[in-house]
Amino acid sequence: MSKSLVEVSELTVEYDDVIALRNVSFSLDKGELLLVLGPSGAGKSTLLKVLAGIIPHIVQGKVRGNISIDFRNPLNEGPSGIADAISYVPQEPWDGVLTHSVEAELYINAIMRGTDFSEVARIISEFRLESIVNRLTYTLSAGEVQRLILASSSYGGTKLYLLDEPSSFLDHDNRKLLREYILKLLNEDYTIVMVDHHINLWRDITSKALVLDKGIPVYYGDSIEEAENYLLQMSDSIKESRESGEIRISSSRELVLSMDDIWFRYPGSRNYVISNFNLKLFKSELAVLVGPNGVGKTTILKIASKILRPSRGRVHVNGRAIYIPENPLLYFSEPIVYDEVVGRAKDQSYGEELLKKLNLMHLSNKPIRKLSSGERRRVALASALARGFNLICIDEVTAGLDPYNAKLVLNTIVDALSSNVSVLGASHDKRLYSRASKVITLR
Fold it and tell me: The pTM is what?
């Protein structure tokens, strides 16, 4: 009889005659952390969904192989049957929200877990949710939602945590908070399977690493350095010509965006999210909004792209503006990748060029709903560029992207600047700052 808490043997998953995972095997004991790495679309999220029983019980797919989690099989029991032993945090945090308010979310999860309500106060304090506990969930930033989902998953009974990109939308301080929480779980003998591209955050506490490439395990072992070598081999084809860190300053004086004395508060709120904000963005210029989760970066992007009207102040956009949200699924207007990028492009040859440049050509005929989060983010950028918008407002520019595809996105943005496109982005990624002519810190 196996002594490991988690045993996965020869796991293969197939969707629509495409193999998403092939012959994946690993084992984990109590108190171990498995870090799952690989490029976007490699099958990382698929692996977590199978372990959680979501595949094949909620999401259809053919699954072969064996899984044992504390001597139970999620393939047989499904997510409801194994929910008392597993906490699953999805890559898109908004997919994990059940209720309209933060407080209700915490209490409903306590009820579902059979936990005493006294635990709610502890969770609020441990995850520093005091400032948002009375907020409506739709007003939260992606980083705030991510903290809420992590908090909601932390009630008692769990043996295995499945965390899909838990740090992708978090600012620096909240990543430190997340790391402290993960260390606490490991010290209390919880087992963790985590997908995350921020390797340095977990380097010293990772027990084992699994590297996937197109669903195939190319490395499994206890050496993070060897795992990184495999990742570097995958990204060798990316040119490093724009890694110099030089600030790109637009020589144009043609104003694309003017935001003058902007104030904004959401309906029903007495507090201003934005106050006395000013910004001028010129043609071929990249500006980046930085700051903690919940400070108002998303709100500014929505105001700049005319989705929201300021409570006070004036916004002027010279040309056409578009907003790419934190959840790219909210952006798309076509079901298929090719139709979204090339079919709606001002110049079809440029649309096809963008598919090649962003490593998307092999996904041309694939439904967007079946893409990974990182693939959707790249398709959204390609679509906005192909449609010829003058101003592109991008929320969390590289969230959920592996280093290989993050470079593709950043290089594509820089190339677009030379074609008279202006970009206003919000990001926690310092790689973006070196390419920007303006970095605006919000507090």
Answer: 0.81
